[in-house]
From TrEMBL:
Keywords: Coiled coil, DNA-binding, Repressor, Transcription, Transcription regulation. Pfam families: GyrI-like, MerR_1. Residues 87-121 form a coiled coil. The keyword Signal does not apply. It comes from the Bacteria. This is Transcriptional regulator, MerR family.
């Protein structure tokens, strides 16, 4: 059996082995130098060769490295492989992989949300849009904030103090009461909000606000924020013409703030809950 194995040995140079396993030759030289992975054979010409079958061991080392194990950790394990250490490594890395999957899924959700918003914007560029739609209940985290001073640095500083990047990555909106809208008082909004993602609710004790289930005026405004008050006049007029009462808050969020260079192209989504007026009179 030994003679058969020796006859079947396929010897590979460093360059050949590196190409086969898609790795830099310098990496192989370094692994050899620190004793993690070395060629099995030395030829009569003085050159060292890898056995083709060493590729299995090398791919295993690559896997451990890709799991963010340090070279010292890898060397300690391959110098003394045992069941208990492997179980410990596997359990830790499975938890890390699960966390990475959750992170990647959230990033995917954020990208899909932004892509959907941009696709929606393509249909809204011709003119402002106002209509009534049905909405499910939605929960937001919120923070009170006054916009009186129009201080952008203060706004950014406040956001970073109350939320993490992971929390506000889908976007930050603002809300203002219907009472203020009807009085034409747009100088002071009631606060800022962010969407509560699925894995946030059980882990967070921050302020929450509920956008109730029901009918909503859904309006899209294109242009600078300074022109929003005039657009709200259109919304109020639309509500009156359709026998609707505005209730609660108006929730505003940018649709394309991450993909424009000119505020004239900025599109704001406005959502205000409405109730239908009883227009039947008693005779």
């Amino acid at each position: 059996m030994k003679n058969f194995r020796e006859n079947e040995i396929i010897k590979l140079t460093v360059s050949q082995f590196a190409k086969l396993h898609n790795v830099n030759k310098r990496t192989l030289h370094y692994y050899d130098e620190i004793g993690i992975f070395s060629p099995d054979y030395k030829g009569e010409n003085g050159y060292r060769y890898y056995d083709y079958m060493q590729g299995v061991d090398f791919e295993y080392i690559k896997m451990l490295k890709e799991l963010n194990m340090g070279l010292d950790e890898i060397k300690r394990y391959i110098d003394n492989p045992n069941e208990e250490d492997f179980k410990e490594i596997a359990e830790v890395k499975i938890k890390e992989i699960d966390q990475e999957i959750r992170t990647l899924n959230r990033r995917r959700e954020v990208l899909e949300d932004k892509l959907n918003k941009l696709n929606k914007c393509d249909d809204l560029r011709k003119k402002n849009s106002v209509k009534v739609i049905e909405c499910e209940e939605q929960k937001f985290f919120y923070t009170p904030f006054k916009f009186e001073d129009d201080d952008l640095k203060q706004l950014i500083s406040h956001i970073k103090d109350v939320w993490t990047v992971d929390e506000y990555c889908k976007g930050i909106g603002s809300f203002i009461s219907v009472d203020k809208i009807q009085r034409g008082e747009f100088e002071e909004y009631d606060g800022l909000f962010i969407e509560m993602l699925d894995d946030m609710e059980s882990k967070n004790t921050k302020n929450t606000i509920i956008k109730p289930k029901g009918k909503y005026i859904c309006a899209y405004h294109m242009g600078d924020w300074d022109t929003l008050p005039d657009f709200y006049d259109e919304i109020v007029e639309y509500a009156e013409e359709n026998n609707l009462t505005l209730v609660g808050y108006s929730f505003e969020i940018g649709m394309n703030d991450f993909a424009i260079s000119d505020m004239e192209d900025y599109i704001t989504q406005i959502m205000i809950r409405v109730e239908e007026n009883n227009i039947n009179s008693v005779k």
